[in-house]
Write a structure and sequence with these properties.
The structure holds three protein chains of three kinds.
Chain A (H helix, E strand, L loop, with lengths): L1 H38 L6 H22 L15 H35 L14 H30 L7
Helix pairs in contact in A: 1-2, 1-4, 2-4, 3-4
Chain B lengths: L1 H5 L1 H11 L3 H17 L3 H13 L6 H14 L2 H13 L5 H14 L7 H16 L4 H17 L4 H10 L3 H29 L17 H11 L1 H15 L5 H18 L5 H48 L3 H15 L5 H18 L4 H17 L5 H9 L6 H24 L2 H11 L2
Chain C lengths: L12 E6 L6 H17 L4 E6 L10 H6 L5 E4 L10 H6 L7 H10 L2 H13 L1 E9 L5 E3 L6 H4 L3 E3 L2 H9 L3 E3 L6 H6 L5 E2 L4 H7 L7 E4 L7 E8 H5 L3 H35 L4 E4 L2 H21 L1 H16 L15
Parallel strand pairs in C: 1-2, 1-3, 6-7, 6-8, 9-11
Antiparallel strand pairs in C: 3-10, 4-10, 5-8, 5-9
Helix pairs in contact in C: 1-11, 5-13, 7-12, 9-11, 12-13
The chains are: A mainly alpha, B mainly alpha, C alpha/beta.
The complex binds sodium ion (2 copies).
Amino acid sequence: MHFLRKLEVVTDIAAFIGILIVVPLILSMVYEVLSRYLLAAPTFWAYELGYMMMGAIFMFGMAYALKVRQHVTVDVLHGALPPRLKAAVNIVGYCFFIPCVAWLTYALWGYMVRAYVGAEGSGQSAWNPQIWPYRAILVIGFAIFLLQTLIEFTKNWIALIANDATDI
Amino acid sequence: MTGLALWMFPALLVFVALGIPIAFSLMSVALIFGVLRFGDAAVAQFVSKVDDVSTNYILGAIPLFVFMGALLERSGIASRLFDAIYLWTKRLPGGLAIGAVIMCTVFAAATGITGATETVVGMLAIPAMMKYAYDKRLISGTICAGGSLGTIIPPSITVVVLAPVADIPVGDLFAGIMFPGLIMSGLFLAYIVGACTLNPSLAPRQPETAEDAISFGEKLRITAIAMLPPVFLIFAVLGTILLGWATPTEAAATGAFGSILLCFIYRQFNLSMLKEALYRTLSITAMILLIVLGGSMFAGVFYASGGMVAIQKLLAEYGLAGWPAIGLILFLTFLAGFVLELISIVLIVIPIAIPLVKLYGIDPLWFSVLFLVILQTSYLTPPMAPAIFYLRAIAPSSITLMHMYKGVIPFIVMQIITLGLVFAFPDIATWLPRQIYGQ
Amino acid sequence: AVQPAAAQATKPVEWSMATPWAGGHWLDIGAKRFAELVGQMTEGRVKINVFPAGTLGSALKVTETVQSGIAEVGHNWPAYDWGIDRTGVIFGGWSGGLTPEEYMLWLYNYGGADLWKQWRQEVSGVVVVPCGLLETEIFMHAHKPVRTLEDYKGMKVRTSGAWAEIATDLGASTVVMAGSEVFPALERKVVDGIEWGGPGINMSAGFHKIAKYIITPGIHQPSGAHECMFNKDAWAKLSDKDKGLIELAGKLTTYETFIGYAKEDLAGYAFLKSQPGVEFVELDESFIEAARKASFAWADKQSGANAWFKKAYEHQRAFQASIKDWSKFRLPIGAAQ
Ligand code: NA
Ligand code: NA
């Protein structure tokens, strides 16, 4: 389990970046309100940075939410299962979910590369920033999420094989 | 092809019932059926959904409101606020639950996003209600039902999307849901008072102690310190919207900023508390948005693999006319609300419904209000109830899913009564728009 | 005799059409009508199911949805692809562009449509058929009257796309917000003015109930056009005959939208005029001149960075120069009373 914990440091780092973004998200929107209302000078960047920061919080938080068991389940049945059976059910679930996340990560990579090659702008405002750096955040977020799903899969595997359910 | 789409629902139920996280279940089922329908191209649709959700400015209100709730909770400001509410309402049956519903009503007027009202008020009120040993079913029902008011009390994203599709001015529809929303809120309050009167164990009253003997002046002092600043904060959020300073999303940021200031004012600010609030914000935001993403992937595959056409055929083939047809549409809406996200239901059902509604000479505004009430009810109705999933994310683990399932039932009854009232007395929906905007 | 493959009858197909429209006449007499005409003209060989905004792919990224094959068909406003390639602005309609009548002439008799197809084929890899003509929009619903450039300077306006950039050059403060926030923001005076659509659509949206002044003419969008796009693999499955019929359906929808929107807008305008408390304000000729000049300056700048933009823009400008005599021998619209 030791090496799994080490791998989870990646998730922790992502989460730390995620929480750091919340404060600038607040400040930029408040700044936009003040600047627009008091100075009649709306910013050209607050809108796009707003959704980008929201999205980044989402992306950097997915793996962490999995690690701390925040993703909601209906556990009426699941909660009553013996640990090994529970692990088996989880493994079945991850067999569908991990390919989904892996495929998305790969496709988002392509989505980013396309934006980079075509020098695509966001098209959402007159600012129209290059969109590939933001898409890189989507790729990174999903890649880290993928890593955490693999870690969870391994934990369940260990629980099933070694009958050690301390980590699920 | 059409038959395929309908199998998505049982498949989803199996995944969810097995205890796979809701968001993972939605995404996995979308993957399976998406590949069956599109092959390799399926992932392109999923990428577009990731892009949609992660670039949606409106969703920025979620981390902002969650942060506001988390900070007020962790700093102890929330518990002081509810202690003060308790001080005044301890003779009132279910006083804290009443405070929570009122707070939900006010918050609903500040945000239009499903989930935001519920998470923020839930974080503030649940610890207080737990502390005073409120019944866990009552706590769950109160927060889920109160939170669902976010969709029906303006502003509401669902309404903004619905109005142009139904060819109704947004302002008229906002005015139209105002009374039904307030009536619903009033019925929730009435239920709480009634139930807690009949069964005081739902909201036990503390035995009288010396502490209760404090003077009226002292009471006022405590209230002024503990209650007024947070209340002022909540009204500041509302005020920035009403005064035209800020859009609802920006108002959420104002509220988050204000709650940081409040922590300084109360001298509660420290880094470890801020860190805890931030981590909580991160995980709850990610959890809510992943459900939003999963829901929109699921819906995308459902529609693309013939689900929309199947529903349209169903309506056409039965050849129903008049109220039976409208009734069937509303019933399908209720079913769809179990899993599909509110906005996509609007986009699918309303274009089919409105021509029929007009054909039968029914007022589209009135129909839209009925539709919204049903949508909101299905949002609350087990087993697939988004309101309950959001509650799970913020409630302590001692409140179980069964508490929640049982707790929402009386509130669903109150929603059905609201529906009946609007149905029987269309003026509830149509009077206010007439007054404000004329014919 | 053996027929060449392309001339054989198409095997019946049932396709999905992605659109950016949640409702309103762009969905009804634009996208849905085109689908209906294609079904009728091909005698059911090409059936198109129309999907509202955001159900298949992203609302404003119809081109991507069609490229990937999630939808075989798309109904789109080319200027939505503005972030990827600004050439779409020239075809979609913009403040330096054409009126509805000029548009039809440019598209079908002066090579505009062919240029458009070529651009899409080369840059986006999809097949397009122009399939809808846009109305002249209302310039603004506003809380203050605007006649001159002075009035406009410093105003907080909600707008989008290319006009957001040009309006900034003219001295307005453009506020960016989500579509769902526009109505409440105008109502609460977060912004001083907004642009949306023509009189017909704006009447249904009810902007006149929350802002006193309606400013015309819509110089930011004198007209424009919609495109129906096809995934190229899907398109390749069609017989030449059906391809030709789809072209015809596109032309017919262009014509029907032209007369359809005009009728709705006339009714909308008459209704808005009749509303107490609503005041119509006309822009000064000097404002209109300044807006055109700023638009051409903006387009010249874009031309430097994008070869396709330059080609389409110059083509449209040359057309504009070639029809300057049109008004000399033609009666103005609605002159006989
Ligand atoms: Na609301
Ligand atoms: Na439900």
